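Working notes for the structural subgroup meeting. M.R. asked for a predicted model of this chain before we commit to crystallization trials. I am recording the input and output together here so anyone reviewing the notebook later can reproduce the run.

Input as submitted:
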Amino acid sequence: MTKKWFRIGMVSVFILSLALRFWGLERFNTLVFDEVYFAKFGNNYLTHTPFFNAHPPLSQYMIGIGIWIGSHIPFWHDTVNGLTGSLRSPWTYRWLNALIGSFIPLVVAAIAYQLSYRRTFAILAGLFTACDGIFLVESRYALSNIYIVIFGLLGHWFLLLALDNQNRRRSFWLVFAGIGFGASVGTKWNGLWFLSGAYLIWIVAWIMYLIHSFSNSKFFFQSPSLEQEAGGESQESEDRRQDSAALASPRASAGSRSLEAGVSTYSPSLLSSSSSQSPLQNLIQLNIFQMLFYLGIIPAFIYSIIWIPHLQLDKTYGFIAVHQQILKFHLHLGGNSPNVHPYCAAWYKWPLMTRPMAYYYQTAESISEPLPVMGPPLPAGAGQVIYDVHAMGNPFLWWFGVAAMLFLIGMLVSQAVIPWVKEKRFSMPATLSVDTWIALYLVINYAANLLPWVKVTRCVFIYHYMCAVVFVFLAIAWFVDRCLCSYYQQLRALGVTITFIILAAFIFWMPIYLGLPLSPNGYKLRMWFNSWI
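Returned structure, recorded in token form:
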């Protein structure tokens, strides 16, 4: 793909994302789902009304800023309500979220490109993210989850940019990475998992480097028979020295890079890659002091200053006390069962999307009636038109993405096990291929954002999966990219088919993402499982 078409593709993805988020933004002149909290909280900052918030305040600051700017724009005020505590148009408390959410596909695409420098991979990652339902829904209302995601993703993108630079430029991007991670935690505490993913991939890189450095140790890694067949000790030492230098400076030898371009000699053919570099190869150039300062002290500092305006408004609790109250609130929120909330869904239900949730549901007798605002739906059978906003992902994007993530896990396991079986020894190559680094990055960050929820006993919902599922989007985009670049026609056809199905599914379920009017039959047609309702 040429640079020109890449730019056209990225602009097209952004325009699609923007149009979907702003189209009919005022459709429901009410507070949808948790807008009853976050839109009110944003307005409270403008009216100087103290309140307790069970989450860090950054997203409510953003919503409040959006309300203030939107209230000074002399249009889009055809409908107003007083549900936030002031007379506001729904557009005022939703438009900034819609704008910020429109950039998430671009940031995902930027991460994909920075991981591999492959334009097709980046375009697919951005397109698939733009075609997801739960990100579309969350962006169209005054909710907070898009801020966790975009700040966390920006932290990762800036970290990759830092790894791709040296000296002052690296420090510059590391500062912004720390700011991004701090802002993500300043939205909700689970934004911390983005930061933990960065630490984990750095730790893994150092572990692999240390294993490689001692990979020929007779005590741990090599059987006696293989030791006898090995060459002289001096030659081994020289080889290790050269390999270690290559790992620390992967750009030093173009010749060795070309040999390492494929995933491995035993990887499937669809994984072969013409790209030979990834910023992740430079992870071991970051020492522990840099990590602790840029990705420890700076995020903590940013998180702390985010609280200042809120604590000045509400002086009931100090900095420590407010965190104690927030923790107490979540610990007493209740168990993770339908008895607590009908849409409670444990973490293992998220990947296959077995329990999405309705953010808004109303019925009307005809499409010409005014849109319902408040009150219960009409009696069963009386409503001929259904308005439903479902916080539900693109089913095939999620399902294919989980399959792609499992493929990546299998690829990593095979690369560790097959050499052990063939050579009867554990060894670590001097450099890993780009696709292996991508697999490590995606699997580690997916696990970092999903597995902490295993121990959470409070009621949780499918939107808590948003921080993890973005790495699923990257995984399926990577798989399709490898298929489209394959020499085999069957694999190229598979890549095209997967892309077509994802796009078709997005169009099919779009009415329940946008809250468009549906007939009862049209609604049932989209509710494939009883657990979706």
